[in-house]
Amino acid sequence: MGTHFRLRPGNAVRSFLLLGDGARLTLDSIGGLDFTGINVVTPSACETGMGGAYTDDGREVEGLSALVQRRGAGHVISSLWQVEDGSTARLMRTLYTSFRTSHGDAAASLQAAQRAVRSAQGPHGESFANPYYWAGFTLSGSRP
Questions:
Q1: Mean pLDDT by 10 residues, the chain (144 residues)
Q2: Which domain range does residue 68 map to?
Q3: Contact 116, 90 (CB under 8 A)
Q4: Are 9 and 43 in contact (CB under 8 A)?
Q5: pTM for this structure?
């Protein structure tokens, strides 16, 4: 089952990550978590890389990716749009397999996973070559 993320412009309390059990983890709650020592966080939900919303008083509401990095994560692999479940599941399986062979190199692992999905076919023979299926995930962060 896929998860979902919603960034509600102007309201960090109403911005949330929908978990597999149906619970909502708000940005306020995530802001209280410590990600120190975690090299890569991969929220494979839709639109987890989105940010730039503003509160009623003009302050920017951090997106999930920026917030997790500010709370200590070295890198975040997040999505820029509503991703398709089948290709995302394949991308995540390949990504985690690649972490082992690349010794945790997030950039190399993401690139390998995107290449694999791009050349794969879905369960009904559909091509995943279209960037919609593999290009929505991006790596952010600055730690080696």
A1: 69 82 88 93 83 59 81 92 90 93 91 96 89 94 70
A2: 4-141
A3: yes
A4: no
A5: 0.84
Q: State how far the alpha carbon of 80 is from the alpha carbons of 50, 128, 131, in Å.
A: 6, 17, 12
pLDDT at residue number 108:
94
Q: For residue 102, give every residue at least 6 positions away whose Cβ sits within 8 Å of its Cβ, in sequence order, or none.
A: 108, 109, 112
**Total structural domains in the chain?**
1
- Per-residue confidence (pLDDT) for residue 55, from 0 to 100: 57
Q: Is 70 exposed, middle or buried (0-12, 13-18, 19+ CB in 10 A)?
A: exposed
Letter for the amino acid at 77?
Answer: I
Amino acid of residue 106: A
User: CB of 10 within 8 A of CB of 54?
Assistant: yes
Residue 76 · residue 69 · CB < 8 Å: yes
C-alpha 21/C-alpha 116 separation (Å) is 30
d(CA 48, CA 69): 13
Contact 64, 78 (CB under 8 A): yes
Q: Which two tokens stand for residue 56?
A: 């009623």
Q: What pLDDT is stored for residue 1 in this prediction?
A: 37
